[in-house]
Write a structure and sequence with these properties.
This protein is of the alpha/beta class. The chain has 27 helices and 22 strands. The strands form 4 sheets. A 6-stranded mixed β-sheet has the order 8-7-9-6-5-10, with helices on both faces. The chain has a 6-stranded mixed β-sheet with strand order 14-13-12-15-17-16, sandwiched between helices. Strands 3-2-1-4-11 form a 5-stranded parallel β-sheet, sandwiched between helices. The protein is globular. The chain binds adenosine-5'-diphosphate and ligand LANB7ZPL. It is found in: Cytoplasm. Belongs to the acetokinase family. It catalyses: butanoate + ATP = butanoyl phosphate + ADP.
Length: 736
């Protein structure tokens, strides 16, 4: 059976995106609520009911989903009782009056207010006026109370239609529909058919089929416009209607193909007798004018709504295991209609199908207005040794990012001086960036800077305050460009009331006391790691599973110029190697753990100065020392070319990473590990990922890959969690 949900998921997840806002007028219907609990990574739900009522339904009816999934979905949702938003009711009512007038129907404002206060209409008008992107209903509303007004108000074409998509179970004889996939049209909209309407329905239904079913599964969309007559074999108004419609199809289809060449794989034939469409044997009997393709169609377009509706419900009841859902054509992906007898799975599939089409074909970027989910504007600052990476985020959306380069010439003036001396010079570059984007400091809701070398602190978003600035200025825990993040952020917001934050700096340390014990009292272990990307990756995994960071057990391997392998136990970053100071696997630029005795001998051999050894440990060690390059792509090329030395070193590094991963098992105290997450630049290598998957297979948990490091998004998200009230910002230094 073609896995249509997996196909939709992979297309939805192919590119990380902003999430569309979806209105749920039927918020108290447990099926709808259940479906929403599986859509958190794709949408922002707005439930049109009081929050307490939605929570009560969830508590009573959704216990089988597990508390985490439901709690996560509700934490990511908005709850709006229409009567509590008189501002919106007024604006929707005004638009409703104007709309009715344009349609030649008189309506007074009082009547309109009453109408749009009803959740179904409220949801439709919210979409129409740009407050949301999609509305879904029909599971409890009768068609005339939701579906008809939705089509009326949201229609973008003169003819709209509804396609019924089925993937039938394997027990269905496959020779009828290839891969057991069939799409029916029109199953819901057009109560009266004209030849033009029917021709538009045929093309629209085929367009839906083409959008949803990948070409490698169905190379051609083959549509039969069915009738009781086969190409003139019988007479009557119905075959005549289909015949006239079939004559109009080529011009309408040509328009579609001009719009997008992917529709060139659509073939439509009418009128075709139902038996000819569904049986090769019957087709043979009518061979004199058979179908233009070998075999059978995958789209059946019906001459009237009764027949389309009958087919939908006949197949739905006859094959309860079928994957089935309706899809609207002509509403610009803004409306989802549900049959009253739908299941939570049908709702989930219908929404995913519309969302996939919205993203892939609707050129959707963002919800036009941020009424239900405020899009806070956050400036993100990430100072590195030779650049200051600067971004502006609006909500989840990365609006601008630039790596503000500081030339060697500019930096020469600061050589040998504390990093804080670069403060003014870098701040000016950030101000120029903002001006260039037409933004002033007053346009920002927060500034988030990369945290520097501070005292060890728990994970989270930290307010930039006097004590933090003092520590960074003093540079007692080390000099690093990232120390400038909080300093510049603080200066930019001074006197404006706008908050400045840092998020998960490299010094995040939540390790158990036992993790700190080394075999020498004087040398307790210290934790310095890629905390920002470690925790952001674990959060991303949790979000993809519609749950919280606090609910997952994962091991994260950040594999970049430095490598850290961390254990995240239910929201606590419990153990990780010190990736900055010679612990863990060797990496492209760092030695990792070295044999202690031999290291001591080397230190006292007189062969190297302290500075030289420090540089070997971090910067000139690892792959650079062993193979003369820190570029793993070059190493892999050498491995591919059969270079024995490169192969040995490459295998050794992967072996050490795998050992570090499996070495984190005790951190979970026997609890199951949900997943191993591979991230950083090296996670782009399929070869390396494949080898790590093989070597850690004994753990019995899946390996998920998140290539690169999304530091800018991670910083923005940390600030956004605070701005949206989901997390409280912490005060530095933490109370001990
Ligand atoms: N496609 C790839 N295949 C293998 N290694 C890669 C690939 N892309 C980047 N890398 C390696 O990842 C490392 C850099 O990781 P990254 O996380 O980008 O860097 P940094 O830690 O310097 O911020 C380098 O060793 C680089 O060669
Ligand atoms: C391991 C601490 C942070 C760090 O070393 O970052 P980079 O690997 O990006 O230099």
């Amino acid at each position: 059976m073609f896995d249509i949900e997996a196909s939709l998921d992979s297309r939805l997840l192919a590119v990380p995106r902003n999430r569309p806002t979806v209105m749920f007028p039927e918020a108290l219907d447990p099926r709808t609520l259940e479906a929403a609990c599986f859509l958190g990574r794709f949408i922002r739900p707005v439930f049109l009911a009081p929050e307490a009522e939605v929570r009560a339904v969830a508590a009573q009816r959704l216990a089988h989903l597990g508390a985490d999934r439901v709690a996560y979905t509700l934490s990511e949702s908005a709850f709006v009782d229409p009567v509590s938003r008189p501002d919106l009711v007024e604006s929707f009512a005004t638009a409703c009056v104007a709309f009715s007038k344009a349609q030649g129907r008189a309506m007074d404002l009082g009547e309109a207010r009453k109408l749009v206060s009803e959740p179904g209409r409220f949801g439709i008008w919210a979409v129409k006026l740009g407050h949301a992107d999609m509305v879904v209903g029909g599971a409890i509303h009768e068609p005339k109370a939701f579906f008809r007004p939705m089509v009326d108000i949201l229609a973008q074409r003169s003819v709209t239609c509804e396609a019924g998509v089925f993937v039938l179970p394997d027990e269905h004889p496959e020779e009828v529909y290839p891969h057991n996939i069939v799409v029916f049209g029109d199953v819901g909209v057009n109560a009266s058919m004209t030849p033009r309407t029917l021709a538009e329905v045929a093309v629209g239904t085929c367009a839906v089929a083409r959008d949803l079913i990948p070409e490698d599964v169905l190379p051609e969309i083959r549509c039969a416009m069915v009738s009781y007559s086969n190409r003139g074999s019988d007479e009557g108004p119905s075959p005549e209607l289909v015949r006239q419609a079939a004559d109009l199809v080529p011009a309408i289809l040509a328009e579609r193909i001009a719009h997008s060449p992917r529709y060139a794989s659509i073939q439509i034939r009418g009128e075709v007798k139902v038996s000819v469409a569904l049986s090769r044997r019957s087709a043979g009997l009518y061979h004199s004018d058979g179908l233009p393709w070998e075999g059978v169609p995958n789209v059946i377009v019906c001459p009237n709504l009764d027949m389309g509706n009958l087919l939908y419900h006949l197949y739905a009841t006859r094959f309860p295991e079928a994957k089935k859902f309706p899809v609207m054509f002509g509403l610009w992906f803004q409306g989802v209609d549900l049959p009253m007898d739908c299941t939570p799975e049908d709702i989930r599939l219908a929404l995913k199908a519309s969302l996939m089409r919205l993203h892939a074909y609707g050129e959707w970027k963002r919800t036009p207005k941020d009424t239900f989910f405020r899009r806070h504007r956050v400036l993100v600052l990430n100072p590195g040794s030779t650049s200051t990476k600067t971004s502006v985020f609006e909500g989840d959306e990365e609006r601008f990012t630039e790596e503000l380069q500081h030339s060697a010439e500019e930096l020469k003036a600061f050589e040998g001086r504390p990093i804080t001396d670069q403060f003014t010079f870098r701040k000016e570059a950030v101000l120029r960036f903002l001006a260039d984007k037409g933004l002033g400091l007053g346009d920002l809701d927060a500034v988030a800077g990369r945290g520097g070398l501070l005292r060890p602190i728990p994970h989270g978003t930290w307010k930039v305050g006097a004590a933090m600035l003092d520590d960074l200025r003093a540079g007692q825990r080390g000099e690093h460009a990232s120390n400038l993040g909080a300093l510049i952020a603080s200066e930019l917001v001074a006197g404006t009331g706008t908050p400045a934050y840092i998020v998960d700096p490299v010094v995040v340390d939540e390790a158990d006391p036992k993790v700190r014990i080394s075999g020498l009292k004087e040398l307790p272990r210290r934790v310095i790691s890629h905390a920002l990307n470690q925790i952001a990756t674990a959060r991303r995994y949790a979000e993809e599973h519609e749950t919280f960071y606090e609910r997952v057990n994962v091991i994260v391997a950040h594999m970049g110029g430095g490598i850290t392998v961390g254990a995240h136990r239910k929201g606590r970053y419990i153990d990780v190697n010190n990736g900055l100071d010679g612990e863990g696997p060797f990496s492209p630029q760092r030695t990792g753990t070295l044999p202690a005795g031999q290291l001591i001998d080397l230190c006292f051999s007189g062969k190297y100065t302290k500075a030289e050894l420090k540089l070997k440990n971090k910067g000139r060690g690892g792959m650079i020392d062993l193979l003369g390059t820190s570029d793993m792509r070059e190493v892999e090329r050498r491995v591919e070319a059969g270079d024995a030395e490169a192969t040995l070193v490459y295998d050794a590094m992967i072996y050490q990473i795998a050992k570090a991963i499996t070495g984190q098992v005790p951190a979970f105290e026997g609890a199951p590990i949900d997943a191993i997450l591979l991230t950083g630049g090296m996670a782009r290598s399929p070869k390396l990922v494949g080898e790590l998957t093989r070597l850690t297979a004994a753990l019995g948990c899946p390996v998920k890959v998140y290539p690169g490091e999304n530091e800018m998004a991670a910083l923005a998200k940390g600030a956004l969690r605070v701005l949206s009230g989901r997390e409280a910002a912490k005060d530095y230094p933490p109370a001990i």
